[in-house]
Design goal:
Shape: globular
């Protein structure tokens, strides 16, 4: 409903009704909804999120609704019968309305009258002098159009680009930007965000390199997307379907299947039974890159009964999908973590695909984990949960037998898992012309052979940009972000140095900012540098890059993957977004260019994430009749995470990693809360962190709680977005103790009220950086 708050009208949610009358309460302006927007189970779920993660109930409710429904509504008054005004303030408001043409918003009238007019408007509405209407937030038109700049001529080699553009550097930059963003970009974004003039666009059109097309904007961008329904289950798949069918309401199972074992078919068959009985289902995927492929498969079975909820949609599209689910028009929802809150009635099954992925953890308050929220919602609504992964998180793996394990031990095609080989970059022969790019002769030979056979290749380098940083050759200075404790990453399209945490961007300097030296050298290699190297080394190969820079436009993920599936791309290189869940039978070689990028980070999950990444990307190879191999370049070939990944031995890795975390104790052996203290000055933050830690220790001692307080200490990333960061760890074997402490401390610990220092409680953190 819409309620008056100071000088504005704001949307609120009624969670309960108290019949006891109280004086001096403002009247509700209007209740625009015919029925509840949030069901009783979802309301109970929001209360659990508030308790478990220590946030407010209001923020938990806000996370459940699409942003379009939280916009600023307007209360509009229009004259009906001014003679019914009783004089005084009523007559003043009617005159003000007449002066504005007979219609005005409550806020506009309040400014004219220089006082709130809500009660007067409601009194006038009751006697029929005026009519009141709530105009909902503007979430955009149902359909419209936009101008799209589309690449129509490819210039794959650097020589062709030099010949075509000559000294027209801005035209070349615009062309390369469009190429990197999947071959198209909205004209508005090209001119407004990237600052390319209309003249540049016109020049590219004149050269025949691009054309400008008008595209309709649709509320359901996935309409018509569908894939052929899957065939009959194999014996292993049918066994898994039967085992999951035996689950009762509130129970969960881990579908532990090797890559390519057909987990999606199991999901679909379990969901088919649920939908046929009048129930509903939720399918969660961790990456937007996986969404189009998953949607196509789900729609291949359930057709137009599927709705989509994820951040790639506009506010309007999300609001429409949300309403369709709430109204019962759609029975299946596919989306990222927030889709766990989809307002579907009669929920029967929640699928959490690739459950190990860290993106299921929300990075803002409430800092919920979609996996755990799914479990809680299933309990409240007597639904079943399926966690699917070839590399389950240790949190779920150790939860046996409460979460049973259902196995898919073989690939559906009967093809064996690919051979994985480690290439020791400390001693392996390297291609001499590769420069800073870590490129072994072994990987080079594998690429050459595959391209000669017209087979496809995936290359993983989990570091975007051109180079890790820029360094002065004379004094050694490295340009750092002024807002964050991190070196600026070098990008070449468009040329700049950028911070990947706060978005700060600067031109690449001609001289060193410290000593004025002329020679600046790049250090480290990112996906842009690898792409440039591949263009020179394999000019005949059709290469596409997939990272956060090339997938910034809407559906750019889908365009790149569609081209790869259609064999229009020979080499797909990218970051971790290409490592999981994708099925391309034509891929015979997977190369991990540098397996060490995350292996030695100061985080207790570093080994687990590295194993998962290598095992997942290895699973992209050998899915077709030609088989496949995986080459993993590393300077740490003896690390157990890589050794177990080579053998495709998840259970062996899990046993070793669980032993590693037993001393010192880390999750899943214990529960953990990361208390993050931030502020604009380091001295203030360090003192506040000490205050919080001392308060915590006093609480633990006074109550004799079985809980460890570790710290305070500077966070590994000591400064982000101009705020210094210190943290304290709360650790306990009994998670109920953590819950009680969190609920108490979140309201009473030093500095928790709003001020210059902020204190955030992150329960079950996925990263300590």
């Amino acid at each position: 409903m819409v309620v008056p708050v100071r000088s504005r009208e704001m949307i609120g949610i009624v969670t309960a009704v108290d019949n006891d009358s109280q004086a001096n309460l403002k009247s509700v302006l209007v209740a625009p909804d015919n029925g509840p927007l949030i069901t009783k189970p979802l309301l109970q779920l929001s209360e659990w999120i508030s308790r478990y993660y220590g946030g407010s109930a209001g923020l938990a409710l806000r996370a459940m609704l699409p942003g379009g429904l939280w916009g600023k509504s307007k209360l509009v008054a229009s004259i009906r019968n001014p003679l019914l005004a009783s004089g005084g303030a009523s007559s003043d408001v009617v005159r003000a309305l007449q002066n504005r043409g007979g219609t005005a918003t409550a806020s506009a009238l309040g400014k004219v009258m220089r006082r709130p007019v809500w009660e007067t408007l409601q009194r006038l509405a009751r006697v029929g002098a005026i009519a009141l209407e709530t105009v909902p937030p503007n979430v955009g038109p149902a359909a419209g159009s936009e101008s799209i700049v589309v690449l129509v001529k490819q210039l794959p080699s650097l020589l062709e680009r030099e010949k075509t553009f000559g000294r027209a550097n801005r035209q070349r930059e615009a062309y390369e930007l469009i190429d990197e963003l999947g071959g198209e970009i909205s004209r508005a974004r090209l001119t407004n965000e990237f600052r390319f003039s209309a003249t540049i666009v016109k020049s590219l059109v004149t050269r025949g390199l691009v054309e400008v097309q008008k595209r309709e904007l649709l509320r359901d961008p996935f309409a018509g997307i569908s894939a052929k329904p899957p065939g009959n289950p194999t014996r292993d798949q049918q066994s898994a379907i039967d085992d999951i069918g035996d689950l009762t309401g509130g129970e969960a199972a881990t579908l532990f299947g090797v890559t390519g074992s057909g987990k999606t078919l199991v999901y679909l068959e379990v969901m088919r039974t649920a939908i046929a009985s009048g129930k509903t289902a939720i399918v969660l995927v961790p990456e937007i890159a996986l969404t189009p492929q998953t949607i196509a498969r789900v729609r291949g079975v359930f057709e137009d009964r599927v709705a989509v909820l994820h951040s790639g949609l506009s506010d309007a599209e999300r609001a429409d999908a949300w309403r369709a689910l709430a109204n019962g028009e759609r029975q299946v929802v596919v989306g990222a973590r927030s889709a766990v809150f989809a307002p579907v009635p009669n929920l029967s099954v929640i699928v959490v695909d690739e459950e190990h992925d860290g993106s299921y953890k929300n990075g803002e308050v409430p800092r919920y984990h979609a996996r755990d929220v799914a479990l809680r919602r299933a309990t409240l609504e007597s639904a079943r949960v399926i966690f699917g992964s070839a590399t389950p998180s240790l949190d779920v793996w150790k939860a046996q037998p409460a979460i049973r394990v259902v196995r898919l031990p073989q690939r559906v095609t009967s093809h064996s898992l690919p051979l994985v080989q480690l290439v020791d970059m400390r001693s392996a022969p390297r291609v001499e012309t590769a420069g800073a790019v870590p490129w072994s002769r072994r990987l080079d030979e594998g690429m050459t052979t595959c391209l000669a056979r017209e087979e496809q290749i995936i290359l993983l380098l989990n570091r975007r940009g051109f180079a890790h940083f820029l360094q002065c050759s004379e004094c050694g200075d490295v340009p750092h972000c002024t807002e964050c404790s991190i070196a600026l990453t070098v990008h070449h399209t468009p040329p700049s140095i950028r911070c990947h945490y706060c978005g700060l961007e600067r031109a690449i300097p001609d001289r060193c900012g410290a000593c004025g030296g002329k020679t600046q050298r790049t250090r480290g290699v990112g996906t842009q540098a690898l792409e440039r190297w591949l263009a020179m080394r394999f000019p005949e190969a059709r290469t596409a890059r997939m990272d956060a820079d090339t997938t910034a436009t809407k559906w750019s993920h889908a365009r790149i993957l569609d081209d790869f599936a259609a064999a229009k791309i020979d080499v797909l290189l990218g970051t971790q977004m290409i490592a999981k869940g994708l099925d391309f039978p034509g891929v015979t070689l997977v190369g991990v260019v540098n397996a060490d990028t995350g292996l030695h980070l100061p985080d207790f999950r570093a080994a687990e994430r590295t194993f998962q990444l290598i095992a997942q990307v290895a699973g992209r190879a050998g899915r077709g009749p030609s088989g496949g191999e995986v080459l993993v370049q590393t300077r740490s070939p003896d690390h157990y995470a890589l050794q177990y990944a080579v053998k495709h031995d998840y259970e062996g890795f899990a046993a070793r990693e669980l032993a590693e975390r037993s001393d010192p104790r880390y999750p899943p052996h214990v529960g953990l809360i990361n208390v993050l203290v931030t502020g604009e000055t380091e001295a203030m933050v360090s003192q506040a962190a000490a205050d919080v830690a001392d308060w915590m220790r006093a609480l633990v001692a006074a109550q004799e709680l079985p809980l460890d307080v570790l710290g305070p200490a500077p966070a590994p990333l000591a400064r982000i977005k101009a705020r210094w960061r210190w943290h304290i760890l709360l650790r306990a074997t009994d998670r109920r103790v953590l819950g009680r402490v969190l609920q108490y401390a979140a309201k009473r610990a030093p500095h928790v009220s709003r001020g210059k220092v902020r204190v955030v409680f992150d329960r079950d953190p996925v990263s300590l950086l």
